[in-house]
Amino acid sequence: MAEDLSAEIGPDRSLLLVDDDEAFVKRLAKAMEKRGFLPETAESVAAGKAIAQSRPPAYAVVDLRLEDGNGLDVVEALRERRPDCRIVVLTGYGAIATAVAAVKIGATDYLSKPADANEVTNALLSRGELLPEPPENPMSADRVRWEHIQRVYEMCDRNVSETARRLNMHRRTLQRILAKRSPK
Questions:
Q1: CB count, 10 Å around CB of 81?
Q2: What sequence ranges are listed for the domain Response regulatory (predicted)?
Q3: In terms of Cα–Cα distance, which of 130, 117, 1 is closest to 59?
Q4: Does any domain span residue 43?
Q5: CATH code for position 146
Q6: Residue 65 shares a structural domain with residue 31
Q7: What are phi and psi of 102, to 5 degrees?
Q8: Element holding 41 (H helix, E strand)
Q9: pLDDT, tens digit (0-9, with 9 covering 90-100), for 59-68
């Protein structure tokens, strides 16, 4: 059974969960409610931004890739309306470049899927005192290549044509690489 963390959460327990995976977002909402949060869900960038404008929450968990756009747009909307909002970006397409972009525009933390409710809660409530443990295994060569491509892609404001030009690769090849999950 999950513990109630209401005292640690504070008086404003509002939590926005933005993810287009309906089953995942419902499970996470139930789990976060058991921990003392008051979750509200959205399954698109548009819905997330609408909630951010009308009733900005104290906490938010935002998926990076949504069907109607990029979750970073929701992060920006939340930062504009509520600068003290603690935001965790959650994604199945984890890359250092996107993590850096998320933190630069105001995310508190960044987690790769699959992340459980305990990891999400710890990320939302952490105040950054502890440094993360160094990884046991270094990145593979494929992963390093993937990270470099993602970094250039973010530097080019997610413009595929410009990224392909800078990386000296065919645009279609780059599109195929970007559509795949990151290597281990």
A1: 16
A2: 14-128
A3: 117
A4: yes
A5: 1.10.10.60
A6: yes
A7: -65, -45
A8: strand 38-42
A9: 999 988 888 8
